[in-house]
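Name: Inosine/xanthosine triphosphatase
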Amino acid sequence: MHHVVSATTNPAKIQAILRAFEEIFGEGSCHIDAIGVESGVPEQPFGSEETRAGARNRVVNAKAARPEADFWVAIEAGIDEGATFSWVVIESREQRGESRSATLPLPAIILEKVRAGEALGPVMSQYTGIDEIGRKEGAIGVFTAGALTRSSVYHQAVVLALSPFHNAVYG
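Structure predicted for Inosine/xanthosine triphosphatase:
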């Protein structure tokens, strides 16, 4: 059984990680150990590079906290070019896989508040009245009428980031 450390305690992210690992490695093939670690970037990262740096930093910090694990996984959500997205970084002792998720364009009224210094989650909670929305369906669930959720979009990116771990061609 794979010991997978999730560098987050966010249920939407943990669900995506568990589902992706079980799809790739088989049901019951892994145990998720969820821990909270620092990203080393602002609570609301801007731009692809800052967001990816946050995910990479979380993996480094998760490895330091749980060095005995088989995999360390981080999902960092950010804002880039008026849209929300995330970077997924997965590492084993030998390899790294990274993938950027799909993006959701954000309405101007939401972007204004985020650009003024508020994080997207709290802004969306104010807008919707849904407490801790970032731990639930997220802005993605709201603006896609539930067709997609934060977890479903993360899930796809985790599956993509896992590609190097089960395809020999990646080397």
